[in-house]
Amino acid sequence: MIAEERKTQTSYDIAQIMGGLYGDGIIGLKGAFSREWAQQLGEDIAVLYQDALKRPGGAIGRGPKRHYVEIHPEGIRGFVELCTHPWVVAVCEAVLGPEYKIVEIGFDVPNPGAVHQPWHRDFPAPDDTIVGRRLNSLAFNLTTVDVTPDMGPFEVAPGTQWDLPDGFEHGMFPPRSLYPRYEERAQQKMPQMGDISARSALTIHRGTANISNTPRPALVLGVDAPTANNAERHDLQVTRAYYEALPESLRQHLTCRVVDKLEPIVQAHTIEGLMMGEA
To answer: Superkingdom of the source (predicted)?
Structure first.
């Protein structure tokens, strides 16, 4: 149930989209979906999270009291609505080109007691960005709760997607000598249910400490340009019946395995530097 009053794809300002992602490295759309739609997403994630916690390797640690879970598209009821939302399509086409590929769907859960993560990127910057000065991937995020300052908001240092990774551990973790630069720029994001954001995963960011009594689940949708290879870190699967029922406009943008029976996902994108939290 997408919010009734939303813009058509062609009515979004392409220059504003590109300016935001090439400038700050993060943009957002308030009220993209109804609160009921976000609540339904939260219900689905809660079930998937409990299931993942029971399976060895089902939930990957991203720091104390913090997990990431990669899921199957058909595990949530709103996958088609999310991927075909006019703003999502417009952002993907503007930044990644008409042949963009959806390569990841999952969620993060910073639970009560989660601590500050170290500043980081989600993966090393590719040559497309370091040399070509192009963004070849995006991450979309949707909260399932109204975020408040005590819930460990996502914190981002705008403009840092272009920082060269000199001295970065594993190409992802900047030296502590650069922390003052990020803290000076830092913006905490407090989205509400129904909001959506798009960012470059190269923009330096971190999850902050969740001192509340409430988890802060957030859905993650990963999208690549044809020149990116992030699909190698993930295992997007759909059953044959589900795939055939998808709109053709969505099928052509999925990089996935079509299977007779869904298999448990073995998460390949671990980020060991996040396991201990900020030192």
So the answer is: Bacteria
